[in-house]
Amino acid sequence: WIWWTFAGAGGAIESVAVMPFVNGSGSPDLDYLSDGFGESIANSLARIEALRVVPRSLVAQYNNQTVDFRQLARDLNVRAVVTGRVVQRGDRLAVQAELIDAVAVAQIWGEQFDRSAADVVGLQREISTAIADNLRLRLNAEQERRLASGATASGDAWGAYAKGRVELNKRTREGLEAATGYFNEAIRIDQNYGLAYAGLAQVHIMRAFYGYAPAGEELPELRGGVLDWGRIRVLAPGDGLGRLPSVGQAFHWEHARDVDANVVVTHLPNEESERFLFYRGLGSFALPLSAIQTA
Q: How far apart are CA 242 and CA 264, in angstroms?
């Protein structure tokens, strides 16, 4: 690997946007790799309570665009931006990542990695840790543990999940069917992969929401069995719950009551927009107006 650092000074940087990583492989079939890489790093950084990470739904609009960092800093109200490029050649993975001071338009840190593709999960953790260090955040032992921990240790499980996310985001009937297969594959490889369970939950929500299937057929899957909310809370307490803000919108409080709102607040302190959507879905059935306004 090669690394470089901008010799800047100052206190901790408390806000960051992780931009969609660029697919430098030249094949659309590998979009899942670049998309998933940036998403995984954002998820890891979002576990740091002192850091506000811009939700992926907001940074997605900048995909494949030339970015004016100062304008982006104003638009997203952030101090720093993470950019990256991923290239896979055979069984090798080349990743370039940079951390940029978006206000000063100055590089804070950057590094190039050349690793085995099988080590994709370990590489994501290493990059996340390096970014946190260069944001000059003071992490306690528990925060360091959460940052270093991943949703899965299996590169194959992560790859299946990342492919599922690409299909899920198409929001088509065919895409949701494909996503179901990928998420189930991820669970088959790693039965404790909480994000994969959360992905399946989203599939059922979207099927009902877009009218691809009657809600009555999807709700039994959501309210028990493999898609148990408690399992998602335990296996992916922050990342997994971040996938579920549309539960309230799709099925209202009657069917979202099994999701512990207090747990969502505890584990998603940085995702203001996600929490807003979640509480808006719950509405006055569950919370007073003041709680929704301050969420």
A: 8
